Amino acid sequence: MNARRTALLVLVTLSLMVVAIVHLAQAQTETPPVFAPPSLGVPAQVASGPRAGQSGIDYSGCGGVTAPGVNPAHEQQVVELVNAARASNGLPPLKAVTNLVQAGRYHVTDLGQDNYFDHDSYDRSGGSLTYVCAWSVRISSYYAGWQALAENVAAGYQTPQAVMDAWMNSPGHRGNILSSQAWELGVGYYEGSGSYGRYWVQDFGRRSGIYPLVINQEAKTTFSPHVTLYIYGSWAEVRLRNESGAWSQWIPFQNTLDWQVEAQNGLRTVWAEMRTGGQTVSSSDSIDLLPTTLADIVAVAQHWHCVAGAACYIAQHDHDNDGDIDIVDVMLIAARWNGT
Question: Fewest CB atoms within 10 A around its CB: which of 32, 82, 200, 203?
């Protein structure tokens, strides 16, 4: 068994070396297009509900269209970097929601295709830009009933880490990322046209009557069925269940809870019911439980001593969800690979 694992480890190492050589060769032969230098927009915030008197605004080019995701992995990495930054500042994770993702994707696509850079929406015709609507109106076409909105935009940055570093080094953008007003988030990314070539949007929001449940700081995947939940709000009691299974007993409410999803690979969903007096609300979140391979163990070991908020930190490698990738995480993933 030890010989088999050693051979697999050597094979994985050689494969990674081949991939690196191929990418190096591509980097030496490809000529990238020339785009404008990276830029940040002015951070935008609205701390109250939608404004009255907007029914006469022309919504042409102002949302309502579902733009495709050009690189969902880039968007997810920004979500995880946002929540790592919030964790390092003692703040709860934001939940990524489809409504805000669609609002962000629409805007980055519009910025690139119509070649402009602004929070508000414009249409380009005959080389001229025509104002269409305010940024908050665009987001409202996807995200109804909001209590607070904020938005960060950026252009030209090549990686999720680069754009997050730029936002975090700008006081206004950092303020949006670390705001306690928002409970939900959507990230949009577009590349391929426009003066900057790449466009990024973060849309932040909070809706009346919505109390998000967040698994593992909104990581997309996990290798361990042991997860950490964060539930928004202040309640007397809470109960949980997996999928459509039986509910747990009611317990005193806590915002942060440890839980175990069903130990079966695939998309796993956790439901929560919270109650106070005569009010009861429910919320859910899902995470993809992945099979464990030797390469996964190597990946965890490579991120040894990375802590939440650091560039090297990847939430899915933190199997005990303590904000530090250490020997415990290696042991946990190795035990799952071994079937124990």
Answer: 32
